């Protein structure tokens, strides 16, 4: 059966304001001046409609995603009714920035792989890494995301925070740019080696974790 959706143009001061702020900050992070044909934002009212547009049943925590040049968001007014999140403008801003980050990543790299870097950067730049989370050992984020599920967001975001503490955002951007034309996971590993001068392994990240988060 044909999947038909009826769209109308919509004005929303809050979403517009959060969008502008996120775009501005991402232009600064990615050093990519995205001014023409900016991403479109689609607001969806219910879980049921999310499932139809997304193409399969989604879990309670999913309130947005990105695809090509667009981001899809659950209507902020229905966050508490249709998801397990508690609404705040801060939560919604981070959601918008996370999804927009994926679009910038795609433009800069021509790919959405590797998942740990794409999700890690989106989670890190949008401020979704909770520094209070007690990470004692990173052991999941480099695996296939289909295997580890949502653990990839938390860990990969924290892994990017560690890279940022050790090397700074410029170096992260350098790595992202070098991913362009990426074909194999071996290439990704070699690039990581050459940019950060260490192996792309859990050990490398856990050493940074010890260095930056060991309490005296
Ligand atoms: Zn994401």
Q: In DSSP terms, counting alpha (H) and pi (I) runs of 4 or more, how many helices?
A: 10
- By oligomeric state, this entry counts as single chain
- Integer average pLDDT: 94
Q: In angstroms, what is the radius of gyration?
A: 18 Å
Distance between the termini: 62 Å
Shape: globular
Name every ligand kind in the structure: zinc ion
Main pleated sheet: 3 strands, mixed
Percentage beta strand: 5-15%
The helicity comes to 40-55%
Strand order of the largest sheet: 1-3-2
Number of strands: 3
Layout of SSEs?
Blueprint: H1 13-30, E1 40-44, H2 47-54, E2 64-67, E3 70-74, H3 79-82, H4 89-109, H5 115-125, H6 145-148, H7 151-167, H8 169-178, H9 185-196, H10 202-213
Helix pairs in contact: 1-4, 4-5, 5-7, 7-8, 7-10, 8-9
Protein described:
By secondary structure, this protein is mainly alpha-helical. It has two domains: 10-107, 2-Layer Sandwich (Zincin-like), CATH 3.30.2010; 110-216, no CATH class. It contains ten helices and three strands. The chain has a three-stranded mixed sheet. Strand 2 (64-67) and strand 3 form a beta hairpin. Helix 1 (13-30) crosses helix 4 (89-109), helix 7 packs across helix 8 and helix 8 packs antiparallel against helix 9 (185-196). The N and C termini lie far apart (62 Å). The model has no long low-confidence stretch (mean pLDDT 94). Zinc ion binds next to helix 4 and helix 5.
